Amino acid sequence: xxxxxxxxxxxxxxxxxxxxxxxxxxxxxxxxxxxxxxxxxxxxxxxxxxxxxxxxxxxxxxxxxxxxxxxxxxxxxxxxxxxxxxxxxxxxxxxxxxxxxxxxxxxxxxxxxxxxxxxxxxxxxxxxxxxxxxxxxxxxxxxxxxxxxxxxxxxxxxxxxxxxxxxxxxxxxxxxxxxxxxxxxxxxxxxxxxxxxxxxxxxxxxxxxxxxxxxxxxxxxxxxxxxxxxxxxxxxxxxxxxxxxxxxxxxxxxxx
Length: 256
Ligand SMILES: NC(=O)c1ccc[n+]([C@@H]2O[C@H](COP(=O)([O-])OP(=O)(O)OC[C@H]3O[C@@H](n4cnc5c(N)ncnc54)[C@H](O)[C@@H]3O)[C@@H](O)[C@H]2O)c1
Known about the structure:
Layout: E1 7-11, H1 16-27, E2 32-37, H2 40-43, E3 50-53, H3 59-73, E4 78-81, H4 95-123, E5 126-131, H5 144-164, E6 169-174, H6 182-187, H7 191-199, H8 205-218, E7 222-223, H9 227-238, H10 240-255
Parallel strand pairs: 1-2, 1-4, 2-3, 4-5, 5-6, 6-7
This protein binds nicotinamide-adenine-dinucleotide.
């Protein structure tokens, strides 16, 4: 899919990867880019974007976002479920922390699909892009809510791709490793962020956005801006026990 002339909605569009995606979509001639974020003031600072306040952890907000975009533009060609949060800890992390992660990193994608797919299916075309993470294919040292919910986000995107392809719906899943954003800056104080720094290069959000738009043109499902993630995925699939041992070793280094 070429983004020129397309009506796009990007959640978490005010900062980081989402903001870079909005800027890139606008540069490539998108007809409209709705910048949806809980931080409305920052969303309004994306030049050429249409800022909408939306907390993706609330279904009513996601529904209202879709309704506003449809009322204004008559269609949504590309919906990017990008907003995400990284909570640290394991089984001991609070129920609130697990629940927040579940709602923002998974249910927001379900609610977006629930409310945007009917109009896309009626038109016989539409594109859903989910930002998951390399943590959704591999793991996240020190952050079980992030690893588990990002795996669920990948699983849901795969399911949508299988189920709705014949109806003209295309789905991609962006799984970056380290990207230089506020989320990573916060995480480097914790094992999760330090592990990311040890695992490979940190890309700039604009590099991820460029790579993503090229992958959308090819309608590729899995978007992996860090080539090493493909290597790690293959190792995990081929020699799972050895991959677990290498992750334990990475954890030892991170905690040392
Ligand atoms: N930065 C990385 O290293 C990295 C790596 C892999 C995946 N990701 C994923 O990329 C996505 C974007 O992350 P980022 O690094 O740009 O982070 P970021 O913190 O820079 O930006 C996240 C944006 O989402 C918004 N947001 C958060 N919760 C929201 C909510 N409930 N409703 C609406 N908006 C909300 C924030 O206001 C912010 O604008 C996330 O899904 C994240 O998990 C990031």
